[in-house]
Structure formats: C-alpha cells, structure tokens
Amino acid sequence: MNTAIGIFDSGAGGLSVLHVLRRELPDEKLIYVADQAHVPYGLRQLEEVRTFSVGITRFLLSQPVKLIIVACNTASAAALHYLRDQFPAIPFVGMEPAVKPAAEYTRTGAVGVLATPATFQGELYSSVVERFANHVKVYQDTCPGLVERIEAGDLRGTSTTAILKRAIDPMLDKGIDTIVLGCTHYPFVIPQIQHIAGPGVRVIDPAPAIARQTRRVLRVKNLLANGEDLPGVRFYTSGDQQRFQKLKGLLLGEKGVVDNVCWDAGVLKPC
Ligand code: DGL
Question: Which pLDDT tens digit goes with each residue over 85-132?
Fold first, then answer.
C-alpha cells in the first residue's frame, strides 16, 4: 500500500514545511527529497525546474507515496500544473505565495513579498496577485543570495542580515504591514525578518496552511494514516549527504539518517 507522503524542494527549504507537517500529522510516514545537486532553483529557467520536478516525482512514486507536496514555491510555479496533468493518479499539494491572506490582513494597503526570481516570473504568482491583491500595493524582492546563505547554515551572519535589510527596509519605507514568505527557505530566518521589520509587521509563513491542506486532501481521499505503519521520515539528497545531515540538524534540531540519490541522464535514483 502507498503509505508515505513525499515532499521535495531544491534543498533544505522544504524542511520548514516538513517541520509543521510532522506536528500536525504525527501519524504520517514522510519521504523528503532535497535536490541539492541543483540548488538554487530560483535562478534557473522554469522549464529546467519542471524537468527536475518530474524526475523527483518519478523517484517518489517508485518509493511509493500516496501524495506529493511540492514544498518549493519555485518548483510549484514551474511545474505544479504540469505534474497534476502528467501524474493524474497522485494528489499534489503545492505552494503559492500567501498573497490572499496578506491582502485580507493589511491595514495599510501595502504588503511585501519575498520570493525567488523564477517564482515571480511564473504565472501562478501573477494570477494570485491579480485575483486577490488588485486593491493593495504589492512590493516584491528576490533577496539575491539568501537561499545560498540558508543552505550554508548561515541564518544570523552579517551577509544574511544585509540581504534581508536591503530587501525589507525599502518596503517599510512604503508602509507595508505584512510580509509574505514566498520561498520555503525563508521561514528559517523569521526571527531576523521580524527583528528588521519590527513588531507591527506580520510575517506570513505558509507552512501551517499547507499542512491543513494536506490533511484535507488526505481525508477527502480516505488516505490518512490509520496507525498500521510506524510514522517517521526518510531523507534523501542529491547533494552532499553529510552536509545535508548537518544542515538538517541545525534547522530542525535533530540528527537522523540521510541517503544519497543521484541524477543519471535525467533520472533520479539511489546512488
Ligand atoms: N525553497 C525554494 C522555494 O520555495 C527554492 C529556492 C531556490 O532553490 O532558489 O522557492
């Protein structure tokens, strides 16, 4: 039986989703894939990210899994529709920048969105802004270098702070009272973002909404874990196994085994 939930990201960002998911759905078995051979996704062409997403989906299906969370805004922008189309038998839950709750919440009528260049280029982003935020001002920043800093485990260093300040200070000058985290890496620097933005600015982490949506989909499809299997997580990276293990320890505060997967002519498989 397909008992696990598959989750993937370009790297460690999706761990911010996994962390909440484990709290909200503690009985579920999870399989996490970090495509660190290709991180960052945000500077790549959407077509390329779509190809990686298909390869990872095929790998997860071979495990097998009952649902896949595309825990990466960039991969969701590049591939979510395509994946649903190509793999109709499997439910997908994807990320979309939380512009809707931000537009509902803002009192100043100005919100900031932090995401990768590829996410901003995707149709998904323009469609959420058009549908839900045409009455508010939306300020965007791609935070160049931030994903790399987080992948390096540098959450509080001077360059991480400088990247965030460069992005957020001009938004504060425009009067924003809400910041949307449109990249799953960024929740790991929420304390720094909140420190720069001040207590009057709400920072929206999409992970709780993704966990709720996952529960909804599993319930509707009658796929929620029924206690027959032991819950737990298997981690895979296409990058350096030990580096990911260390990073996971830093971000989630836990150790645990990480296995290696390798890309071979567009196919992701055990090394
Ligand atoms: N964590 C990803 C996202 O949500 C990808 C960041 C990257 O690899 O550039 O967009």
Answer: 999 999 999 999 999 999 999 999 999 999 999 999 999 999 999 999
Q: Which atom of ligand 1 is nearest to the CA of 44?
A: 9
DSSP-based three-state secondary structure for 61: helix
Q: Tell which one of 18, 114, 163, 184 to mutate to probe ligand 1, the residue whose CB is within 8 A of the most ligand atoms.
A: 184
Instruction: Choose among 239, 262, 270: nearest CA to 34.
Output: 239
Q: 246-270, pLDDT tens digit by residue?
A: 999 999 998 778 999 999 999 999 9
- Average pLDDT of the chain, as a whole number: 96
Q: How would you class 165 by CB atoms within 10 Å of its CB: exposed for 0-12, middle for 13-18, buried for 19 or more? A: middle
Residue 141 CA to residue 168 CA, distance in Å, equals: 8
Asked if 113 and 67 count as a contact pair (C-beta separation under 8 A), the reply is no
Model-wide pTM > 0.90:
yes
β-strands 258-264, 232-237 pairing: parallel
Instruction: Determine the Cα–Cα distance for residues 59 and 252; give it in Å rounded to an integer.
Output: 24
